[in-house]
Amino acid sequence: MTHPMPDRMRTDLAVSLALLALLLWWEASGWDMVVAQWYGDGAGFALRNRWWTRGLLHDGGRVLSGLALAASVVFAVRPAGSSASARGVRLAWVGLVLACLLLVPTIKQFSHTSCPWDLEEFGGAVPYVPHWMLTVLDGGPGRCFPSGHAVAAFAFLPMYFQWRNTHPRLARTILVLVVGLGVLFGWAQLMRGAHFPSHTLWSGWLCWVIGAVGARWLEPMPSIVVAPALAMGLGVAPASLAAVEASTGHDTPGGASAF
């Protein structure tokens, strides 16, 4: 028996495809190089090592991301007033954040695309080759696509999906904050010559898709079904799990567990 796609899932799919279409349009426009030339020239990028681009927005952004991740983990495992199944669901959402933080650096390790500051147009030694030309090498150090630094913020996009059903105002706040910081971090790297705009856009899109795909599995499922293994890992006996199931019922979605 086939089940119709839920409205929320259809919306997520439509948004993901619309964002992908805009991203592909940007790729075809050739604006990456145009925008990079606003901040760099044959002498390089004047803002590459300024205290506010490198120290505040780059290094500081990493620190902020690390603190946010630590706070998310602490919240996920805190014992007070929380069932094992609810903790398991929260840990699963944190796992999606970690997936975002790991996916982009992994892709970068296999990327042959060099950073703008390595290019001849900006005082470097290698020619410009668009990153979507996968079989053409620019001869440079590579490992510059997509933007790893922007993921310091975009990685938390799954948190929007986590809260949108139970706490929509919080979810919207997270969405605005995460997207805003992601764009800011990406802009800082653009000014420094570390990335093109498309590098940041792809990072944001990938994290959005991970959140949307994760929501497909975590939102509709009861807490007791979503995370039995995680609950067991926390030392909860099967009898205790059965008690939680009996007390919560199977009509409660994972996102609606008591937090």
Task: Describe this structure as you would to a colleague.
This protein is an all-alpha fold and 259 residues long. It has one domain (42-250). Helix content is 62%, strand content 2%. The chain is built from 11 helices and 2 strands, in the order H-H-E-E-H-H-H-H-H-H-H-H-H. Strands 1-2 form a two-stranded antiparallel sheet. A hairpin with a 2-residue loop joins strand 1 and strand 2 (44-45). Helix 3 packs antiparallel against helix 7, helix 4 runs antiparallel to helix 6 (157-163) and helix 6 (157-163) packs parallel to helix 8 (197-218). The longest helix is centred in the N-terminal third of the chain and has 27 residues, at 51-77. It is globular, with a radius of gyration of 21 Å. The chain starts with 6 loop residues before the first helix and ends in an 11-residue tail after the last helix.
Shape estimate: globular
> Mean pLDDT score, rounded?
85
Distance between the termini: 34 Å
Helix content: 55-70%
- Total strands: 2
Order of strands across the widest beta sheet?
1-2
Cα radius of gyration in angstroms? 21 Å
Give, in order, the helices and strands: HHEEHHHHHHHHH
**Beta fraction of the residues?**
under 5%
Count of discrete domains: 1
Q: What structural class is derived from the secondary structure elements?
A: mainly alpha
Number of helices: 11
Low-confidence stretches: 221-259
Biggest sheet, in brief? 2 strands, antiparallel
